[in-house]
Amino acid sequence: MIPTYRRLLALLSGLTLTAATLVTAGVSTPDAGLDTRPVFADSCIGYCKHPTNAGKVFRWGVEKWRQEFEKGRLSGHWKSDHPEAIGQQQGMLTIKAESDSGTVKVWPDNRGAVYGRWEARVRAVEKSDDAQPYRFTWQLVPVDGDDGCGADTIVLASYVPGDLRVTGAVRTLPDNSFEYSRKRDLRSRAWHTYAVEVTSDHISWFVDTKVVRTELRPEALAGVTYRPQFVLEGDADTQMRASWMQMDWVRHYTLKRPNAQSIEAPQMAQTTYTSTCTG
What we know:
By secondary structure, this protein is mainly β.
């Protein structure tokens, strides 16, 4: 019996030593506090910090609708006036505009809301450096209406690669325009995250997780049903730079959860615009 007892003690001692060695070597359970957040590639330019989204900072809760573009094929609910231009590539919604594509618009046909929060992580990728550049725009447009006439449109971000400032706006009939601009790194391939909160009494714009404008004037509040839309604006009669517009993800949140931080911010600059709406 004694040898067996000694063998048992030796076995237990060996197990203790092995466990201690593993801990010393850093081989431990997830409770050891490992950082499991995704890591940006060294080549990432633009806004490459955590968290990337205002939804996390302001604690908007679980998304009502989200498109991550990570698995399978692009959903058939994504539509375009150039169907051949859209696809899902390396975890991104990718819109490809050729040198003669003209303006390309992309939108989902199954998502619309009067109020809520919309957010997307977006970048422009120019495939050449000659000819005329496309303008890249991330916006909300009326589900029922002529989005080309400009009325009742909320622009989260619009810019030409190389611009010093990104711009945004809300436009309502008959000719009200409220606008902002924000200095950003807008080189080709630079990532940025743009969001908007639309309620019955205000609209707030967010750039790279920071609230930049909050507009309270009734003239800015259309109260229509919006859907998201991405646009590469070009001229079909002009040689354009072949370009891609890529979205890492697109999300929509309700207003159920209040903002965890203040959204107090300067109001927009009010101007006018020329509407081509006929209705």
